[in-house]
């Protein structure tokens, strides 16, 4: 599990997440109350699993609504995505793209390190045949797992080639929604030095910016995409700055679970039809399908037989 190590000089850095064991704080969940709920209309999620009673808050998706999606408005006005992407990211299952003549669906011309995405359409079986075209080179396939009859998850771990430009649609499937996990933001950390360390204590990322801002967000630049697991992050004041004051720190990422485990804390067992098949760490979904006796997203719902 990733965690922050925050160093400071004169002002205590206060992290936004509570630390109560029973997670009684409204809007949070998890064994250490470390995860924020993202339910529609601000509803409280399940305090253990994070499951929402209804839909996810707009802009969030996936298990426990913990994944922030890329939206049309996130792009620079000078490099806007295709109008097609605005249709596929409008949270409406009634607005779809697809026709017998349309096998190539443009999204954008933008360097983005794709890790995983969820696509909804008319047929999960047809969607599972989708391929992805980078800016350069041939189309590539990603590991896929069917979530339900209209939804498929795709996991692409080769960040070097996963520069999404368009979707190659050989089965002419109808696409209604594309949820792409947002792994970066559009501004750098300013006025601080940030270092990320791997499990062996070796630095895998270092960033220093000298001009302070009142509010900032952080992006790991595409050309410095961190492919290794990160165990800790250190934030220190830059040179002669007198004060380091952090009011809220949010960290996004998946746990590096051992084989056969998945979940935010690697607390669940994979239940794949092929026992040698590694399930997706974020969802538990299996490319080979669920093992006998299990069903549903993540293959952890026990089937009952009459």
TrEMBL record:
Coiled coil: none
Secretion signal, residue range per the UniProt entry: 1-21
Keywords per UniProt: Signal
Superkingdom of the organism of origin: Eukaryota
PANTHER family membership: INACTIVE TYROSINE-PROTEIN KINASE 7 (PTHR26391), PROTEIN KINASE RECEPTOR TIE-1, PUTATIVE-RELATED (PTHR26391:SF18)
Protein name according to UniProt: Fucolectin-related molecule
Upper classification of the organism: Eukaryota, Metazoa, Spiralia, Lophotrochozoa, Mollusca
């Amino acid at each position: 599990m990733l965690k922050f190590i925050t160093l400071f000089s004169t002002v205590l850095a206060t992290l936004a997440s509570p630390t109560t064991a029973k997670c009684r704080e409204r809007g949070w969940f998890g064994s250490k109350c470390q995860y924020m709920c993202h339910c529609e209309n601000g509803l409280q999620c399940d305090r253990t699993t994070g499951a929402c009673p209804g839909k996810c808050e707009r802009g969030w998706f996936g298990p426990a609504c913990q994944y922030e999606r890329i939206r049309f408005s996130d792009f620079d006005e000078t490099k806007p995505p295709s109008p097609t992407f605005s249709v596929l990211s409008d949270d409406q299952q009634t607005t779809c793209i697809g026709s017998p003549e349309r096998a190539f669906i443009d999204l954008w011309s933008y360097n983005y390190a794709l890790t995983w995405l969820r696509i909804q359409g008319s047929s999960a079986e047809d969607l599972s045949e989708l391929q992805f075209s980078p800016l350069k080179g041939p189309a590539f396939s990603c590991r896929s797992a069917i979530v339900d009859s209209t939804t498929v998850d795709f996991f692409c771990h080769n960040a070097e080639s996963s520069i999404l430009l368009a979707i190659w649609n050989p089965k002419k499937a109808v696409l209604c929604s594309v949820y792409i996990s947002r792994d970066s933001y559009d501004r750098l950390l300013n006025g601080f030095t940030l270092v990320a360390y791997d499990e062996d204590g070796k630095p895998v990322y270092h960033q220093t910016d000298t001009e302070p801002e009142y509010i900032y967000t952080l992006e790991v630049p595409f050309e410095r995409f961190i492919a290794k697991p990160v165990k800790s992050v250190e934030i220190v004041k830059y040179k002669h700055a007198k004060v380091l004051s952090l009011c809220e720190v949010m960290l996004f990422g998946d746990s590096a679970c051992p084989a056969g485990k998945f979940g935010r804390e690697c607390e669940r067992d994979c239940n794949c039809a092929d026992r040698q098949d590694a399930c997706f760490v974020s969802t538990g979904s299996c490319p080979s399908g669920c093992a006998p006796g299990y069903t549903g997203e993540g293959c952890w719902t026990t089937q009952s037989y009459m």
